[in-house]
Write a structure and sequence with these properties.
Blueprint (H helix, E strand, L loop, with lengths): L12 H4 L1 E6 L8 E7 L9 E5 L15 E11 L2 E11 L1 H4 L9 E9 L5 E10 L5 H20 L3 H10 L1 H10 L5 E11 L5
Parallel strand pairs: 1-5
Antiparallel strand pairs: 1-2, 3-4, 4-5, 5-8, 6-7, 7-8
Helix pairs in contact: 3-5
């Protein structure tokens, strides 16, 4: 008579998982970004979470806020709450393309800066002029863009810098400087990237 097959207990791995509320940093009033599921806390550390200014409930960023995505990294877990830090933003490339019009000049400028509290960030700016400009004017605009970004960024800490960038204060100040050189149509920080260091 054949031996009965040994029964193995099936473990429902889904039941072993639990839900965590992902919390935005203080500059976003610690709003809940989303919920994620994991078996243990360690699985969440360093995970990148993406959302938009609109989805996180931020108002006051104007039309560009509808097209701005945010990137957060989970730093630690306390209970069932996963805390995060902001590591960058990006305006949708499709929206940036709408800035380009015939008869205008576009300047793309990348600037590596350090905030007052020592945080290293890369900012990618776009400047759109009201009409086509000469190469000399382009050089002056580039030089002034770099100078103003470095000065403004080094005067505030990282949290304040990112608030200024996301809410338009940073680009409003930059616009005020550049319009003294030539007619400016638009200025945006289209992307920011936190320079992270991992042990």
């Amino acid at each position: 008579m054949p031996m009965a097959a040994k029964k193995t207990k099936v473990v429902d791995k889904w039941k072993q998982k639990k839900w965590y509320a992902v919390s935005a940093p203080a500059i976003f009033d610690s709003r809940q970004i989303c919920e994620v599921v994991a078996t243990e806390d360690a699985q969440l550390t360093n995970r990148i979470i993406r959302t938009t200014l609109a989805d996180i409930g931020v108002t006051g960023a104007g039309q560009v806020g509808m097209f701005t995505s945010l990137r957060f990294r989970i730093t630690d877990v306390k209970g069932t709450t996963a805390n995060t830090k902001l590591i960058g933003h990006e305006i949708a490339p499709s929206f940036v393309k709408t800035f380009a019009r015939r008869g205008r000049s576009l300047i793309h400028q990348v600037v590596d800066i350090k905030s007052k509290d020592g945080v290293h960030i890369r900012l990618k700016a776009i400047v759109v002029t009201g009409a086509r400009v000469s190469e000399n004017t382009m050089r002056n605009l580039r030089a002034s863009t770099v100078k103003e970004i470095l000065a403004s960024a080094s005067a505030v800490n990282f949290d304040q810098l990112m608030q200024d960038v996301l809410y338009g204060k940073f680009t409003a100040n930059l616009y005020g400087v550049l319009k003294k050189i030539t007619r400016i149509r638009r200025v945006e920080i289209r992307k920011s990237e936190l320079k992270e260091v991992f042990a």
